[in-house]
Amino acid sequence: MPRYSIDGIDLRIPRHCLNDGLDQQLQQGVYEWKEVNGLKRHLKQGDRVLDLGGGAGYIAIQAARIVGAANVATVEANADMVKAIEQNLVLNHVDQVRVLHGAVVADAFSGDTVAFDVKPAFWSSAIASGPRQGAVRRMQVPALRLSDLMQAFEPDLVIMDVEGAERDMARQDWPEMVKTVIMEIHPQLYPPTGIREIFDAMSVADFAYMPWGSRGNLVVFQRLPD
């Protein structure tokens, strides 16, 4: 199993969950650097973190370094990567991080499971939408509603990389406890009107765009003070 070291964090990732581009980013140490930059800029001791789209567990481990493993929960739909996350948490001595298997869905979703397309590189896997383009396989995974997750974990900060599902997440009700949302947007998956929808919805929920920590398609939203 390939092994990488980034920012003092050791990661083991199943070979069949990698492609050349992802392997190169991991080897060069630039994997998820924008997310880490935003997290380090805004996360503080005492916060609770909900990580949506856990990947290899790298973001959850970074968060656990700051706030303690017991204050972090991560959600991942790919069952193979759930196992990798659990192994990486143990490898980095933060195995108290809570790991949930499932895909995050909007509250209006009616089923208990949702179709999920597993891509050759784990970071491109996503909730199924239309034909199975480029997916290794399509499977049913637990559907985890965002409001249920927030009620269960009461996060101060939510960080998400959910491959296009952020449009639905932005339109959700955001409880007052959530002060910061770090969101990777995916302009390649929707038109500019989709970006506008995200910003408009977050504005309605009393969040403002925060330049510090934002970089390219990694956007930080901060709740406005009362």
TrEMBL record:
Matches recorded under Gene3D superfamilies: Vaccinia Virus protein VP39
Domain Methyltransferase small: 41-108
Species annotation: Aliiroseovarius zhejiangensis
Keywords tagged on the record: Methyltransferase, S-adenosyl-L-methionine, Transferase
Lineage, top ranks: Bacteria, Pseudomonadati, Pseudomonadota, Alphaproteobacteria, Rhodobacterales
Stated name of the protein: Methyltransferase small domain-containing protein
